[in-house]
Amino acid sequence: MHPMNPQAQPNRLVTFCDGSEALRRRSVAAQVHSTTLEVPAPPERLQADWSRDIGQRLCLEPGDVEQLPLARARMRWPNYKACVQAMAQWTRSLGLQELLADSEVALMACRGARYHHDGAQYGAMAFCNLFLSEDRGLDLHFPSTGQRIPLVRGTAVLFDTAQAHGVIARHATGFVEADFPAGQDCNQVFLTWELPIENAQLAKLLGIAFDPYPSACPLLTQEQAAPATLCPQTGRWT
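-> structure tokens emitted (238 positions)
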């Protein structure tokens, strides 16, 4: 991730992604789309399984985000298809046709989340998340845009993987480990789809431009850009 020379493009970030033919430079989207969907609560037995996995196998610490086994969960989740259908209907309403159905899905758990971006590993993707847990008093926060999205069952979010984000306590202004004390249920479980940003409708929806600075050299020089780092507590770029 690189901030461009402020004299040329103030406050603009660019990142690199593996396109279908070659490495491409692209802008980082500032737009975040969200809604709250009517989805059934996962069965209590399944939620108990998740709690055991989170506490005993994943051993989540404050700020951790890890993967749960989806295949096993689906066998005990009669309303899984209803959740997927609700997300598919929402993404179709955004103009993405059947993109969700053609994309990879995973089941994730977090105990809050330090501010981070996923552009290094998933720079060619956008995340489309459906949160399945009840309201734990947590918000998904995008510090660059100021958006705070309350996490409740049915919260759906679509955003650029390279956009800085974190999961913080609703009363907090940043990520604080003490807001996630031992013995308190601060966990969130969610489904996440990886949508390809090269899809023209998705890129347009998020406002992503490929090769947005054609006058810049293919290899950025120190005068043009410098690697950006992100503070995990405040979400500020430096």
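Residues 3-11, 220-225 have pLDDT under 50 and may be disordered.
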